[in-house]
Amino acid sequence: MPVWKNLSVIRKVVQLLAFLFLVYGSVFVGFYSADKISGAFPALACAYDAKTADYCVLIPLQHQLGHGVGRAIGAGTFALSMLLPVLTTLATFLLLFVLLNKAFCGWLCPLGFFQEVLGMIGQKLRLNRTESLDEKVVDRIRPAKWLMLGLLVILFPLASGIGFVGHELGDPFCKICPSRILTSLAAGQLNQLYIDTSSTGYMILSIIADTLFGLILVLSLTMRQPFCRICPMLAMHAIFKKIGLVRLVKNYTPRCDKCGLCAKACPMDIREIHTSKEKDILMPDCTLCGRCVEFCPDKGVMAMKYAVIPIKVSDPQYFKERNRAQKQWEGKQKPSRRVKKD
Amino acid sequence: MKARLLMGATLVVALFSFTAEASMHWVPAPAVKGHGHAGHGGGHGGGNSRHAGETYLLHGGEGAETQLMSPHLAVKALQPEQGRVSVKAMGTGNYHALVAKRSAGELHESAIRYIYMNGKPSGVSPSLLIGHEKSALEIEPAPLAREHWRYYSGTDAVFVIRYRGEPLAGASMSMTTGNGSSAEFTADATGRVTVPLPQDFTYEKPGRAANPPAEFLLTARHGDDGQRFITTFSYDYHINPQHWQSTELGLAMVGGGMLLGGFMTLRKRRRKEKK
């Protein structure tokens, strides 16, 4: 299959370019915040990377909720106008988000790309990979992203501003975010990889951050996108997914019941794309990577659309070629050790 | 409140220790009852309230014209009272420039300081403001430490000395700090000067909150056609967090996380094989 026809290859190229731009973008757009695209980017582009081209939306949200709204509530001077910066940040986020919807995760996020590259390395090293997680495990993991968004991005910063909890929890998600460590390291900075001994709170948060980064380094080799499953950005995207222009559409046929290749192809283990009979199948966990469309063997059953314009529609010929290309890429998997059954 | 007063007092001592003989320059005013206090650079305005003004002192600036320049290069004249100016955002957020200029005979002096102000997104880059010619001789930060990045002791900061908008090769520049250090520099062929910020803090307690920043002052001088030019750039710098942040321990913890990941992977595989 020619690489220019392969959606996964095209996506990898886009991800690589996005990674280079978001991590080293100051080379193109200068060092200062207004040079950046938005200051509220819908993917984990990190403000702690001194060379970044934009900031992830989660950092201004935490700061505005903590330093602005929380502090005003604590001082008893809260007025609705205090919400303006938060609303401005959300509006900026939405202006971008509406253009690409959840594809910011699957096509542009530096941390998502990094995990996928590690996954490819794991494949090439013939490591025994878990292509799909158990349904029960997936169901247990799914609420984590909402907890991360609710606690680390909204509640703790607010509580810190009010004075209920320490200053350490003013921007707790950033304190533990693996993208902060990844992008700053990629930009040649070691200053975000540390254990902070200045207080118990800072120490705990820095231990969590470094441990989480180490975990992701190893888990990504044998498992698909471990951090994406608990990322608060995924939850934030899920809230607004209805207004995004990129959509995932399914034209259910009875053949779908017996197939399920789309769910197997999904790196986020969204089994509902297989079982759902709805037309709109953009699920909260979806990153719009398009693999379900690629691996659907029936003509026109699955489609990725930009508003009403089809970008990619499932096709049996494409499926055959794509499947062959995938098998060529993966090569022979190392057989796992079998335990003899009595 | 006590902490704020202590920080203010420390700042005053630090500031006045190098202002006696220095050229005209800007410093944040220490907190005074009834006045706003100046925030520090880097980090969303240094924690000042969104609606509060900031107060700065212009040392040695008798008779100077003072102005605030917005990210859009809009200029607002400031009226100093006993060397103090109260600064409020001009409707937009992001970096603004405090500019003071004075000419007497053949001597032309200027003092520039960049301050972060909260407000509506400006929509333009601070590069525009920083690159804009605000005085004949100027020290341009390249880049200015901003947002989640500060000037730290023990690290290098880069500046470009410009004269009439063009880089000034071989220009001389001096640095003094509130902690008592001083150094002399010469610009290279492209007007660039790399300044190693001195490790001159007395470290007692861990944490950024326990270690107030100090000021550093850069002064450049240049003579041309019988005219003398002096310009200053002032900003704050912080104690290097390496005193309480250990990269070695961080790396060890990443290693621990990797081991944990390896253990989880093996356990998962064994469970799968048992099924």
Task: Break the fold down into its secondary structure elements and pairings.
The complex is a heterodimer of chains A (342) and B (275).
Chain A: H1 7-24, H2 26-29, H3 58-75, H4 84-100, H5 103-108, H6 110-124, H7 135-141, H8 143-162, H9 172-176, H10 178-186, E1 195-196, H11 200-222, H12 232-240, E2 246-250, H13 255-259, H14 261-265, H15 272-275, H16 291-294, E3 302-306, E4 309-313, H17 316-330
Antiparallel strand pairs in A: 2-3, 3-4
Helix pairs in contact in A: 3-4, 3-8, 6-11, 8-12
Chain B: H1 2-16, E1 25-28, E2 54-59, E3 65-69, E4 75-78, E5 84-87, E6 94-104, E7 107-117, H2 126-131, E8 137-141, E9 156-163, E10 166-167, E11 172-177, E12 182-186, E13 192-196, E14 214-224, E15 227-237, E16 245-246, H3 247-274
Parallel strand pairs in B: 7-15
Antiparallel strand pairs in B: 1-2, 2-5, 3-4, 3-6, 6-7, 8-9, 9-10, 9-13, 11-12, 11-14, 14-15
Transmembrane segments (chain A): 12-34, 78-100, 146-165, 202-223
GO molecular function (chain A): 4 iron, 4 sulfur cluster binding; metal ion binding
Protein name (chain A): 4Fe-4S binding domain-containing protein
